[in-house]
Amino acid sequence: MAENFSIMIPGARGNGEHIKVVAPWDLSSITEVPAASAEDVDRALETAYAIFRNRDRWLPIPQRIEVLEKTAALMEQQAETLALEAAREGGKPLIDSRVEVARAIDGVKNCIEVLRTESGREIPMGLNAASTNRLAFTRKEPIGVVVAVSAFNHPLNLIVHQVGPAIASGCPVIVKPAEDTPLSCFRFVNLLREAGMPEEYCQACVVNDLAVAEQLVTDARVGFFSFIGSGKVGWMLRSKLTPGARCALEHGGAAPVIIDQTADLDDTLPLLAKGGFYHAGQVCVSVQRVFAPRAIAAEVADRLASIAQPYVIGDPTAEKTEVGPLIRPREVERVADWVTQAIAEGADKICGGETLSQSTYACTVLLDPPESALVSTQEIFGPVVCVYSYDNVDHAIAQANSLPFAFQASVLTKDLDFGLRCSRRLDAATVMLNDHTAFRVDWMPFAGLRQSGLGVGGIPYTFEDMQIEKQIVLRSKEL
Length: 479
Description:
Layout: E1 18-22, E2 29-34, H1 38-53, H2 61-77, H3 79-90, H4 94-117, E3 122-123, E4 134-142, E5 145-149, H5 157-169, E6 173-176, H6 183-194, E7 202-204, H7 210-218, E8 222-228, H8 231-239, E9 246-250, E10 255-259, H9 265-277, E11 287-293, H10 294-308, H11 329-344, E12 348-351, E13 364-367, H12 374-377, E14 384-390, H13 393-400, E15 405-406, E16 408-412, H14 416-425, E17 430-433, E18 449-450, E19 453-454, H15 459-465, E20 467-475
Parallel strand pairs: 5-6, 5-8, 6-7, 8-9, 10-11, 10-16, 11-14, 13-14, 16-17
Antiparallel strand pairs: 1-2, 3-4, 4-20, 9-19, 12-13, 15-18
Helix pairs in contact: 1-7, 2-4, 2-6, 3-4, 4-5, 5-15, 9-10
């Protein structure tokens, strides 16, 4: 199914090496893609910057809308192919990859909607002697060259979230997908070009040299840096951005859930299980830490285990698979080490806790791991949910807030006052009431706090970030 993709930079020659793309399920080879050289990256930046500096080459809004409309139509025609490719290269089960493709198509349409509704504003004048005979208003303009670096776990939808708003805002964009999952990105860029996007306006490449990747991000010609991935890498790159470059960072978390004695467990525990084990837990807002009253904590853990154990773990391209592989065998080893350590330190294993193959790990529920364990203090990014007993909800909230990460959180309760009290005290950008932490629609704000990120994601918010608001002041005796 995978075709041979070239470096998507006009005139690029590559560095003579190739990056192997393998299926995480069985490590079978899918294809190889050429790695870009330092000269290729410089060429891409030179091309994009030349477009931005020449205002006569800016794409008019009607052309942007036309390209996005045609792209959405092409994606709808090829939806099953896109879903199958995303499942194969990224490991997310086909049933969920189909949802991802549907979201990505809707995301492209959302980019059109923000173009139709966004506008400048009038600034009040004529309020005093100094502002008499003046009219002031703003207009939106692209911020500059956008460099987008993406993650593996949503190989199509994340690219849409970074590239789509750049196109809508009129910015030339260079995108570097994760080396593990470049094919969905390349296919999307191909669809944009098929829809009429000039190839110089949207370029894509992968690199196998960290110095070249850093060169792409930190070049003085970059106006906006969009990063989704490791916090360690993202914050390091931000520190090296050229003065004046803006950025948005989206990293991971260790999402907490506070359960009240009044919670409807029949309704909400299936949601928590889905939120914890979806894509084998490889989601930045996966349910990870569940805090329950001591009287019901064991029941919560047992019921989560009873939901998780029947999940079908297997080939992500198979129709019946519900949980797929982790992205690399070393991630399976890491998760296994963390769980083994937690059990050795006193956690009760309710289910799972075992490696099923070099690429898969059993859905695991742990009860009361130590607060100091790695599963309690770090983002697991694997199919593991931890349940903690609490006697005092204030202590549970303090424990939930004790990490340097803060993203999305949940509260399960029928008591409105309890829900609002927890919502006010939890360190989170978003708090769900009676839902799992991983809920998201793509037009809502999506923001990591503390080490979890910088700026606000979500297509309308990214679109806003990738523009400047230029003010024009007109003086006339007739005003």
